[in-house]
Predict the 3D structure of the following.
Amino acid sequence: MNTIPGVNTEDSRRNRTVLLVEDDPNDVELIKRAFKITLFARKLVHAPDGSTALDYLFSRGIFAGRPPGMPEIMILDLGLPGMSGHEVLRQVQADEQAHKIPIVIMTGSSEDEAMVKSFNLGASYFIRKLPDIEQFRYDVLQLELHWMSRGGPSKPF
């Protein structure tokens, strides 16, 4: 495991839950592999669509009995089946507790309009999906460093 001087890696990873909202199984695997080299997440919860993500966040449906609390960060694909990533973002931002979650938008789109709309809706960070695993790992590491430089997930990006 990689270490960063002055950072206790076990404490840094404790109780960090990332909610990954992604419908493409190949992208889910890419993200899981990218996270293996970082200190970013202790637990990765996968939701394959927007409705499932909202059920998890608001402890509804199959998640009605889950332990209380919000994930420390959400990675949200924009191109989801059914409810779009932007609609998920709108609903999260409208909730008193959920709107505090830093949301990282991840998309294969190269359109700047998608990025601008995401930030206008309250997204914290934006990563473009790339087929190159090394570049993607670099982007995830940059996200983690960005997060750590702000004192952790309790502080907004």
Observations:
- The two ends are 26 Å apart (CA to CA).
- The mean pLDDT is 79.
- The chain has one domain: 9-147.
